[in-house]
Amino acid sequence: MGEESGGVPSEGRWRATGGRIRVLLVDDHQVVRRGLRTFLEVQDDIEVVGEAADGDEGVTRAQELRPDVILMDVKMPGTDGIEALRRLREADNPARVLVVTSFTEQRTVIPALRAGAAGYVYKDVDPDALAGAIRSVHAGHVLLQPEVAGALLSQEESGGGGGRGGTLTEREREVLGLIADGRSNREIARALVLSEKTVKTHVSNILMKLDLADRTQAALWAVRHGIGA
Fold first, then answer.
1. Higher pLDDT residue, 123 or 156?
2. CA end-to-end span of the chain, whole Å?
3. C-alpha span between 106 and 169 (Å, rounded)
4. Is pTM, for the whole model, over 0.85?
5. Which of 56, 82, 132, 228 could lock 177 by a disulfide, CB 3.0 to 4.6 Å apart?
């Protein structure tokens, strides 16, 4: 996914991999990794490029393999999934991370989203739904269960990320609407006839003005305020 903060792969790399989504599996249970690999390897457009048994190894493998999507467990011994997410973001690794967890509590899932996850699914997810989720986050979309989206919005309303949309310029509102639609920086640049560098500047300004941490929060803020999707 090598192009920008949104984490969507450049066209050159997409063609170079034959249109297949490169996936890294990070889970401390070998049987889970084996099951995921067995299913994903029959998908024509998905390729499992590696595995890791904990967050520390996951970060190392992600830097080596540069996958498009990482399937990440949250609760792992040593470096857990949330810390791994933070380290990947600090390293500016462009992979999109889809949390795959058996934990449904908001106190577990929400920190993962805050740390940069593109979405989450439960480990008992239907296999076809999992494949669809991988394709969705790879395409730049934010994948949230309704209850978690609602909890995030409630937190924003009670503290931070408040109603400062009036401080945005018209162009920034256009960019924000396209973020809410799941567009990558490259796609936004094409839609608005701008350079990717200019789009990145707009995205940074939006996050700063609205006091938001990442594109996930920006997309939720936009939806709540009727901008975009």
1. 123
2. 23
3. 34
4. no
5. 228
Tell me: pLDDT of 66 over 70: yes
Q: What is the pLDDT of residues 11-64, one digit of tens each?
A: 434 434 458 999 999 999 999 999 999 999 999 999 999 999 999 999 999 999
> CA–CA distance from 186 to each of 8, 36, 146, 214 (Å)?
8, 31, 28, 17
Reported for 204-213, long-range contacts at CB under 8 A and 24+ positions apart, including other chains, are 205/172, 206/168, 206/172, 206/175, 206/176, 206/179, 209/164, 209/167, 209/168, 209/172, 210/161, 210/164, 210/165, 210/168, 211/160, 211/161, 211/162, 211/164, 212/161, 213/114
Is residue 117 within 8 Å of 83, Cβ to Cβ? no
Pairing between β-strand 21-26 and β-strand 119-122 as defined by DSSP bridges: unpaired
Secondary element (H or E) of residue 146? helix 146-158
Does 201 or 7 have the greater pLDDT score? Answer: 201
Q: How far apart are CA 37 and CA 161, in angstroms?
A: 39
Closest listed residue to residue 123, CA positions, set 51, 74, 182, 171: 74
Residue 118 structure tokens: 């593109």
The answer to whether residues 219 and 144 touch, using CB atoms and an 8 Å cutoff, is no
Bridge partners of 23, per DSSP, are 48, 69
